[in-house]
Queue: 2 jobs
Job 1
Amino acid sequence: MTTIHLAVFGIGNVGSTLIHQIQKIKSELLKSQHIAIKIPVIANSTLAFFANDNEMNWKLDFEKFSEPYTIEDVIYHFATLNVEHAIAVDVTASNHFIAHYETLIKNGFHIVAANKVANTLDYNFYKRLRNVLKANNKEFLYETNVGAGLPIIETIKGLLQSGEQITKIKGVFSGSLSYIFNQFSEGELPFHQVLNNAVNQGLTEPDPRDDLSGKDVARKLLILARELGINVELSDVKIQPLVPKHLNGSATLQQFNVQTHQLNDVFSAQKLKLKNESVLRYVGWLDTAGNTLEVKLISEPKASPLGQLKGTDNLFEIYTETYKEQPLVIQGAGAGKVVTARGVLSDIIKLSRHLQKINVGKFV
Ligand SMILES: NC(=O)c1ccc[n+]([C@@H]2O[C@H](COP(=O)([O-])OP(=O)(O)OC[C@H]3O[C@@H](n4cnc5c(N)ncnc54)[C@H](OP(=O)(O)O)[C@@H]3O)[C@@H](O)[C@H]2O)c1
């Protein structure tokens, strides 16, 4: 039997759902795979609960017994347990938590993250993290950084390992922007009403300009580019933002909300320019020929995979030497706590099975 100890950092939407999913599959995993998963540490930004393991009632225990902590307290707690393999799970939305990665790795932890920050900072940090992982024989899995539970990074890695040359990746990487342009392109509603509908259904960030700025799509594109070995920074991504400067920057959310009708003319003009049987899509576009990375609004034939996109789905078209004319297409829900937690859990199990096979990288 292989025992995996987890320290779960972040108990918001994804973290709580993940703990719940682990509790549900625990006994089956032990029976069928001979892998025991334990969660001796659960933490948010200020408090942690230390135990031997956490059971179904972890929320109550956390409320009653959690205490202020440092990362060293977590490392110490793991050292006091008979830990075979340790994984730190970063399901925070924090810019700061990644500062602990190096300490955790050097103290025996592998990392599984939904948090994108470590992969989107400057390239020096990205490279340094990989060097530290290699030097300490540790793994870092982050499938949910792009497309939530969809197997995007794994597919790209598999293609590269099998000698495929990836030439282009193009797709809709944002659920909210997928919804907005799927509705706007084919319906009759003016743009501001489609946007309001998306906000009212909770599909956008609280300030929808965070989605409309294109930055989140750009971050995902950057992660994919780096996966292909392209040495780029976020500033290298050419972004066509969907909000004009005067409605962003110093304009408050309230000021923006009462002026969203100003967006109508811009997008109606784009819609009028569409050729027959075409629709608008806001895409991330990576071309390896010139290492170009763009986030832009394009016209797409209705009959294409991107043109047929519905609801809030994400869609990734991957072009390679083999998938030249017809791309390899991955489509499905690209956000949401359940699919994201499932993706994180899938990374944890993949890593556990790897550790079970090689039985190296034991906690030190
Ligand atoms: N939700 C999705 O659909 C989705 C999809 C793909 C990826 N993701 C990624 O998954 C991550 C989690 O998302 P979420 O929706 O679960 O966020 P969330 O609901 O805002 O929860 C964030 C959690 O992280 C904790 N946290 C913040 N800073 C921390 C720190 N320095 N150390 C330890 N814990 C810290 C917060 O604790 P406090 O309450 O104390 O602040 C909170 O428990 C994010 O990085 C997000 O980008 C989410």
Job 2
Amino acid sequence: MSREGAQGTSTITRLRLGHTTLNAHLHRLRLFTDLFCLWCRTTPEAMEHFLLKCPRFHSQHTALRSWLSALAITTLDLPTLLAASGVHTS
Ligand SMILES: [Zn+2]
């Protein structure tokens, strides 16, 4: 596997497992005391919130929805996106 391919696989594995530098994961590891998104303050900063829901990134989410709808992907949640990229989440 190429270096780029290995990095991509590693990134997808971290997304699948929820092992990221986002606050909810760091809070679980007791590395960071603030569970919540730095912008919303009321929602745990987990990957699905960061990628798909945080109002801070509304314009990026709109662009993502547009690109995904061109691929006939209309359900926007993390399991659907991982499955569309060929990753099985079970
Ligand atoms: Zn947020």
